[in-house]
User: What shape does this take?
Amino acid sequence: MAFPKVNPTKTEAWKLLSKHFSEMKEVKMQTLFSEDNLRASTFSLTWNDFFVDYSKNRISAETLQLLLQLAEEVKLKEAIEAQFEGVSINETEDRAVGHTQLRNFKNLPSAVSVTLQKMKTFSEAVISGNWKGYTGKSITHVVNIGIGGSDLGPDMVCEALRYYKNHLEVRFVSNVDGDHVMETIKDLDRETTLFIIVSKTFTTQETLTNAETIRAWFLGQAAKDDVAKHFVAVSTNLEAVSNFGIDAENIFPMWDWVGGRFSLWSPVGLSIACAVGYQHFEDLLKGAHEMDVHFRGAPFSENIPVILALLSVWYNNFFEAESECMVPYSQYLSKLVAYLQQGIMESNGKSVDRNGNPIDYQTGTIVWGSTGTNAQHAFFQLIHQGTKLIPCDFIAFSESLYGNKDHQNKLLANCFAQTEALLQGTYESGVENNFKKFEGNRPTNTILIEKLTPKSLGSLIAMYEHKLFVQGVIWNIFSYDQWGVELGKIVAKGTLSAIETKEVSKISNSSTSQLIKKL
Ligand code: F6P
Assistant: This one.
């Protein structure tokens, strides 16, 4: 089974979409709604405890049918099967893409089962207090040391599932900024803190520097033999981990077929299991798996990640929208956007196609956003009245966790009101003052989920994982490599050496050497 490599712009559907776009670009959603009483239900999907209303988009039935035709013509179905069947679809790194295997409990690879069991045993020992530090005290604080996919996912999930947390305080240190490290550890008690070093490669400068600094800080009071009780690691690079001095027992393996930004389902999620308990971690995985089953099996016209991806392509490639905004109406999801920025932009920020040729059409969207209602009082002005078209995803939960009805009603009222205002505007209602006019016709999706649980969170994250994959398939790019981050790492070696030695002769650019001389 091969990974298809179709140039989307050469498909029949693309030609038809281009023509169709010239008809649709001036059409107002207000008109589409007034002409069709069934529009809301036609363009909505119900799945498990998700309700996705995508009726407030600049589409007609024909748009959707042409977008679905595009999905067929780029052989999306084959691409999905290739991923799930373990074909090496990450061709530039010659790897399969297996994060979905980590959460398929009916068919877990045996190494994954063993590791999950190890995570369970370990996290339960830490939570119960049976895991003792070097002076015999139980653990009270857990610090995750990692960056990118080895930080953003667990950090986001620990925040999102705060309601389900136990007594352990979990912190995250990622930046090589020494002040970040000190602010994270300065009030910690070495005797009761556990450090989880997470690095798929165990070569990442930031993580290794931070881990070494923290180990030196730990050894300021404790002895070398005590390291085993306070440091564990998650990595594919078992040799480098043991060279760092971590006990073999304390290594949680990872696999090269799991990409960093898709790795929270692996032992990278060990801090999550510690924070909320293993069972909640497993529920998170199960929720993601349910979305995998939906994605793999549902017809494209009823497939949530596929529909969201097609809409995004419609705006990106035809309306020339450059960015997308995400607004979760839940403070628990305050770290979701930063997490998805890595997932989406590291995956789809590519300009060479799967045949190795430069691309002459737009790929990866810029993703940004923040929680509602806060965002309404910050950047929403630009979405309502600015010159740019910014499609938005509104994510909300019908029920709150603590059950305060008054707050929840107001929160949801704001969420729905924004999508309504972005759609309707005031353009048609005779407002005379231009400054106060809103054109409306601004597209939104509303993803309404019953309640924020580990399971629904898992489904939500997996939904966006699959959405970005579908977009990558359509754009004919490889979504699972990230060569674009390598150059900066290499250049930083030279700038570090120049900063340390004060010798700038090897720095080729005068602006950079000027900056170094200023230090
Ligand atoms: O530089 C980008 C990146 O490779 C990400 O893809 C990854 O999540 C992050 O660095 C951290 O890598 P590692 O887990 O190997 O330390």
